[in-house]
Amino acid sequence: MIALRNDEEIAAIRSAGRIVASALARLKKHIKIGVQTKELDALARQEILKHSGYPAFKGYKGFPANICTSVNEVVVHGIPSARRLRDGDIVSLDAGVKFRDYFADGAITVGVGAVSAAAEKLMRVTEKALHIGIANALPGRRLSDVSAAIQAHVESNGFSIVRVFVGHGIGAKIHEEPEIPNYRTSRPGPVLEPGMVLAIEPMVNAGTCDVEILEDGWTAVTKDRKLSAHFEHTIVIREGGAEILTA
Questions:
Q1: In whole angstroms, what is the distance from residue 201 CA to residue 61 CA?
Q2: 143-196 pLDDT tens trace
Q3: Could you write out the three-class secondary structure of 181-196?
Q4: 236 in any annotated domain
């Protein structure tokens, strides 16, 4: 069952979303050559707690960190560590926040130092795909319209969409119904209605869409070890279109 949130619930999710946005903005400013990903994790926790939120990923199904830091070929769920960022890396930063019993989730991908033109294009196309998906999240349309729009933009630019991970509903839990594929399926999906809160998150690979999970049970990497990018916003469906809650 897909929840339709009232104004009070949406306000709480929006507050959580603002904390997500604040944390990601602070991390983006801190990205530089030589920074350890565990430093980013500590900084994110500090920022989230400062605003009376709680890092939603910490301990979720056993995840050991406050945020995900996914570098280069890591698609998602990268665990912060002593790894230092190098010139030309790209790093995806994924943060979830709980605030007053409600959740929001967001992600960005950031270049470190001088990145390649190919990496710049990958990040640009992925972020644009997210916003194209959001623009198609209109009341009365099907969820599959969002998925198809994302896939069309990504593939028209020569990249591939990850299929083993999808977006999701969000609100009273970090993951709720519905699942939100970033690619066309045989099912039209539910009709979008005002009050639905969704986390839309295209994950885009430079090469194959295939992914492997490393021995830690979390880190997902591209099978061909080519670059991957990830952008995400939490949105609410409104009468006039989608409102971004993690802006």
A1: 20
A2: 999 999 999 999 999 999 999 999 999 999 999 999 999 999 988 899 999 999
A3: CCCCCCCCCCECCCCC
A4: yes
Whether 1 is in a domain gets the answer: no
Q: Are 159 and 205 in contact (CB under 8 A)?
A: yes
Boundaries of domain holding 14: 7-244
- Mean pLDDT across 75-92: 98
**CATH label of the domain that carries residue 76:** 3.90.230.10
Note the Cα 213 to chain centre separation in Å: 18
Q: Classify residue 231: in a domain, yes or no.
A: yes
Bridge partner residues of 91 (DSSP): 71, 110
Task: List beta partners, residue 213.
Answer: 220
- Which DSSP state fits 78? P
What 161-165 contacts at long range (C-beta under 8 Å, 24+ apart), as own/partner pairs, is 161/202, 161/203, 161/204, 161/205, 161/209, 162/75, 162/76, 162/203, 162/204, 162/205, 162/209, 162/211, 162/228, 163/209, 164/211, 164/220, 165/75, 165/76, 165/201, 165/203, 165/211, 165/220
SS3 31: coil
Q: Which two tokens stand for residue 65?
A: 């960190």
Tell me how many domains the chain contains. 1
The answer to whether 158 touches 213, Cβ cutoff 8 Å, is: no
Query: Rounded distance, CA 227 to CA 206, Å?
Result: 5
Give 99-116 pLDDT, tens digit per residue: 999 999 999 999 999 999
Length of the chain, please?
Answer: 247
pTM of the model: 0.97
Residue 2 is assigned to a structural domain of this protein: no
